[in-house]
Amino acid sequence: MDSLLFALVLLGISGSYVTNAEISREQLKKGCSNKPADIVFVLDESGSIWGPYFKKQLEFVKDVVGIFQIGPTKTRIGTVTFDSTSRNIFNLNTYSTATQIKQALDGVEQHRGGTRTYDAIDKMHNEMLSSSLARPGVPRIAIVITDGESEDPVMTEKAAKVARDDGIIMFAVGVGNKANRKELVSIASSPVNDYMFMVDNYAGLKTLRKILAWRACQALRVEVLTPLSEDDLPLEGVMWRK
Ligand SMILES: [Mg+2]
Known about the structure:
Blueprint: H1 3-14, H2 25-33, E1 38-44, H3 51-67, E2 76-82, E3 86-90, H4 98-106, H5 117-128, E4 140-146, H6 153-165, E5 169-174, H7 181-187, H8 192-195, E6 196-198, H9 203-220
Parallel strand pairs: 1-2, 1-4, 4-5, 5-6
Antiparallel strand pairs: 2-3
The structure holds magnesium ion.
GO cellular component, one term: extracellular region
Organism: Ridgeia piscesae
Domain VWFA: 38-212
């Protein structure tokens, strides 16, 4: 029995979960509505990221933001971009509405320097999701979007591990044709199939955003759903009920 079928059987037994294909937008909202989270996006703006692709990253973040209920007592969003320098675009408590966040993202420009992913992860961990900004008892989630080609993969792996060991849930999203899967795996939480996504092109991000939002919702649950394998993720032609 493959994992998808197995998951479906479990779903039938528990009756409390739905598959990717069955998740409607309404269900996504409902699933996240009472689950506050502190989420920081870590976005690669280095020179290896083609300009239009960087814009796609920003659109992706805006799309994901639209799926969560945003507010001071609900889900809060922060964003850091990085090349050789890590830039705090806005903190968890900077904005209180999705509209404000989307407007702020529209104003972000790409600097196209080096790729010090580890510095950005450190900043996310030690500053943006630190105890002075993150809420006690609320899940802390980081979503790192990169082509996976940092200047020092060992330092990137270490920074991600330190963050994970401190309880931060780490998603890694690979972008670009040359995305380095190995580094993405080293960033993501376990099991990797739940927290690491590769897309062949940026169009895939549009579909991926829904899966990612769902995974983030799942990460907020105490219960654990049998993970679908990477092959099971319907990156193309996914059926989302409107
Ligand atoms: Mg780069």
